[in-house]
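Supplementary notes (optional reading)

For those who missed the lab, this is the record we used. Protein: AP-1 complex subunit gamma. Length: 773 residues.
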Amino acid sequence: MTPSVRLQEMIRVIRSARTQGEERGIIQRECADIRSQFRQGDNGERSHSLAKLLYVHMLGYPAHFGQMECVRLIASPRYSEKRIGYLGAMMLLDEKQDASLLITNSIKNDLSHSSQYVQSLALCTLACMGSAEMCRDLAPEIERLLRASHSYIKKKATLCAVHIIRKVPELAELFTPSARTLLSEKNHGVLHGAVVLITELCERNPDTLVQFRKAVPELVQIMKGLVTSSYSPEHNVAGISDPFLQVRILRLLRILGHNNDTASDAMNDLLAQVATNTDSSKTAGSAVLYETVLTIMDINSESGLRVLAVNILGRFLLNNDRNIRYISMTSLQKIVQTDHNAVQRHRGTIVDCLKDQDTSVKRRALELSLALVSAVNIRSMMKELLIFLSVCPPELRSQTASGIFNAAERYSPSKRWHIDTILHVLTTAGGDVRDETVPNLIQLITTASELHCYTVHKLYRALIKDIAQQSLVQVACWCIGEYGDLLLKGECEEIEPVQVTEDDILDALETVLQSHMSSPATRGFALTATMKLSTRITDNVDRIRSIVSIYGSCIDLELQQRAVEYNALFKKYDHMRAAVLERMPVMDKNSPGHTNGDTSGEIKEPDTSKPKPVEAVNFFFCVYLNFYTPLQPSPAPTSTPTTTSSADLLDLLGGLEITPAEMQKHCCVYVHVVPTVSVYEKNGLSLKIQCDKQTETEVTVTLIASNSTQNDITNFTLQAAVPKSVQLQMKAPSGNVIPAHGLGQVTQTVLLNNPNKASLPCFRFVQLSFLLN
């Protein structure tokens, strides 16, 4: 290739290169030639050399050595060289380059040039790469050109003014007077630039909204002219007159009408006209309608107009273009809380979108379907969601299960339906549910005492059918351990009973314990369930003892610790096994935001403007109080003294240490009897236990409740429960209202008595369960 080839020939040669190495060789030779051309000075070939260098830059090769040549060509009096110089400046220079400051004076001179084409080159360059310093220096020139006579210059000056405002926001006031006058122009390019400039001014400085809201009638007239105008080949796009300008005007109207009744009323008729007269069969029409919908929803529009906007989005859901369906559901998701009933009319179409092949459309349809669930349609919507759960992609399964749980908790028509729904989810996608699902379901089952028989039968059937879903297996094991006696009776009115023997139940639990699919947590549930069955069955206690003893040497420390504790319960403390393994007490739970039966589908925020007495939320917790007698050391055969360590005083069953992790795992508070211990502190409510007196058989404690919130807690009551082996006496509380700001306390004395002195060492820990109402 000869050094003087033209640009077209260089492009042809580079494209014909067969390898990357050959291409690099061609470009290296050409760059060397370009450097030599630059060094030769003004030989008439500099602009052609720079044009070739710009093509090299487009291919990704270094071209920084042409920056100064751009500066020289911009200063040239010839238009052909100026054009290439400005183009090179826009491609090779930016505001971080020092060379960009060298062209400021040239741009200023060209902005005053007699030729509009030279002025346009300077305007384009400033709008593309002008730095903050350049914008400050040249802003007066741009403001002058906004009043130029040529529409061509006005259009470019307007867009350059937008760039200046973005770089230097404090210069916005300079362009505010001229922006309003540009709306009277007939040229669509100038109008488009004027609307963009006004939009930028309103977004940057909210104080200008008052001034430009006076221009709403002008914008409405311009928009009406575009909607009703006849066919114009210059501006027509797929049957829509200048959709780009229409979209820009609608966006500006949305900003001007936001939270302003006067401006909103002035544009209501226009928006209704655009919404009814625009053809949505083409993409251009859909774009205009979409912006119209967004404007209607963002201003203070009439209710009928908002319903019309929702119906337009509903039509978009039927469009074959997935992009249009996606943006339609995105918009419906934003307005479903404010226009719930209007969106509900398109529920069927939204649910059908769950069957779409595109994952992003499925995700949007899922989010919108969950938002449409209410107390009225909970059964029908949950049926569709459960069907979707069984066929949805793995990446959506967790979100679907979580949404079903939340909807069922808020709108469940009955506890049985609630339990059946959660069990269905666990059966279908048990491995994709959240960690708190298991304790939440257990809490739900404990509160539904009339459904214990039905639940344990259903869970037993699910357990023997499939043990792969770990969450389901954990709940099933827990229920079998708690209500195994109901399963053995075989009497259940809600479901066809199954005749189950003790061996069948133990076989199922052993299968879970031995399965390679069972996690350590699941095995812990199964082992505890097996142990609890020892007090609910009569003929297989020896088998249970054998199963438990096997895991006393398990490699899993958690499972081993449980087995060792249970073995100790069998051997040393068998007389108290029935009391220790009795059924768990019922635990009530009120979920914040539980709106069962609320058809609005929205969680209402509390009114904090006026202080009101608040009801204490029910919650349940356990406190283990340590009864102990200092143990007398046994005579030792050696001279080494026998001592009692702190671990001996804190063990649960004869020398077994309870770690803090184990305490947390059982969701209880273990309190060694000390003068004062804080056992609950949440949401401003604090509860402390103070030990007043302790003997070998008795403990006297005082419960102290305080309130640090801004409102009084009223109707405060405290209930307590202990095992049958311990006697409980609760004195009358000091009151039932806890003053706000910690200005007062409610106290109550509790007496615990252990009359069985002979078995005192076995009662080093006594469970004291409290329920606050």
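If you only remember one thing from this example: Residues 590-674, 758-773 have pLDDT under 50 and may be disordered.
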